[in-house]
Amino acid sequence: MKEIEIKVTRKKIFAEVAVTTAYLGAKSAPTAPDPGQFFDTLATVDGDSGFLSQFIDDAVTTLTESLRGSVSAVDLTGETVKVKLIAADGYDETLTPAIERNYRGYLSAAVTGAWLRLTLPARAGEWENEATRRLGEISSLLHHRTPPSRKKL
C-alpha cells in the first residue's frame, strides 16, 4: 500500500472562499434592493474565520466518512489541514497533483456551499454539488491503477 499525504492551509481556503463569495456578491448585488448591504452580507471577511474553520473541519469529516477505507490519518489541529490517504500498490503517482488540486477544490467548494447556505441558500446547492463531484474525483483517482506492462526481453 502507498500512503499519500495532502496538506492545505486554512488561510488558502479562506482566501479562495473570500474571492468566490465576493465575486458572487458583486454579480448578484445589482438585482438586490440594497446592493451594498447584499455584498457585505454575502462576501466573507477576516472576522468570519471561526465559521469558515468549522466548515473546513466539517468538510474533512465528510471526506473521511466518504473515503472510509482510504483515509489513514487526519490532522485538523493547526493552520495546515492534513490528510493521509492510502492507495493500492499499483497506484500511479503521477495522479498525486490531481488529487491535491481536487482536495483543495473540494474544501473550497464545501466551505463555500456551507457559507452560502447561511447567506444565499438559493445558490448553495451548486457549490455543494461541486464539492460532491470533487470528492468523487478524489475517490476515482485513488483507485486508478497503472496497467501492468510486460518487460521487454
By DSSP, the count of extended strands is 3
- Could you estimate the helical fraction of the residues in percent? 55-70%
Q: How many alpha or pi helices?
A: 5
Class from secondary-structure proportions: alpha+beta
Question: Can you describe what's shown?
Answer:
The chain has one domain. With 153 residues, the protein is α+β, with helices and mostly antiparallel strands. Helix 3 crosses helix 4. It has five helices and three strands.
Supply the key terms.
3-stranded antiparallel sheet; 14% strand; 60% helix; alpha+beta; 153 residues
SSE topology:
Blueprint: E1 2-9, H1 10-28, H2 35-42, H3 49-66, E2 71-75, E3 80-87, H4 96-119, H5 121-143
Antiparallel strand pairs: 1-3, 2-3
Compose a concise summary of this entry.
With 153 residues, the chain is α+β, with helices and mostly antiparallel strands. It has 5 helices and 3 strands.
